[in-house]
Amino acid sequence: MDVLIIAITSYLMGSIPFGLILTKFFLKKNIREIGSGNIGATNVLRAGNKVVGYTTLILDVLKTIAPVVYVKFNFPDFLYIASLCSFLGHVFPFWLKFRGGKGVASYLGILFAINIYFGLIFVISWLIIFTISRFSSLSSLVASASIPIYLVIIANFDDAIFFTTIFVLIFFTHRENIKRLKNNEETKTKIY
Q: In principle, which of 3, 4, 11, 26 could form an S-S bond with 89, CB 3.0–4.6 Å?
């Protein structure tokens, strides 16, 4: 019963569509009709308000940190179940017909909740690639891949399997971005 409650609660917390809520409330816009139509922070930035964009990012990270940290200290055996379910809630929220964000902010929340060093590796990798390319999508893909690669290097194969699974899901959510990157059609992102 504990595992079912943890899975459902984590999914529901992860599925809160902060990008949609904030743009509707503060900008009177429907984020699904802007840019890529995605509810994540990068697309919210395209709506023209950086405060709303960064607030979306922070809340999307926190909504994953909350259940994962709670489970980490109270039900550690179910840590990866809570992590995966909160991630899936963000990417596939049932109340938005399973069309949510791309999972990067949720992944970042999972990383910081499980191990702060994982989160720092992600952030540093993201910033390096973004500084070079100015592509948020490419930065997210490389940073997401950096964690399982790091875990394989230090021979932590059990954790590497889980984070490789998350990376594969992020790769899937970025499939259109990957096509645009390949065709040199991807839009560069302004973060300040």
A: 11
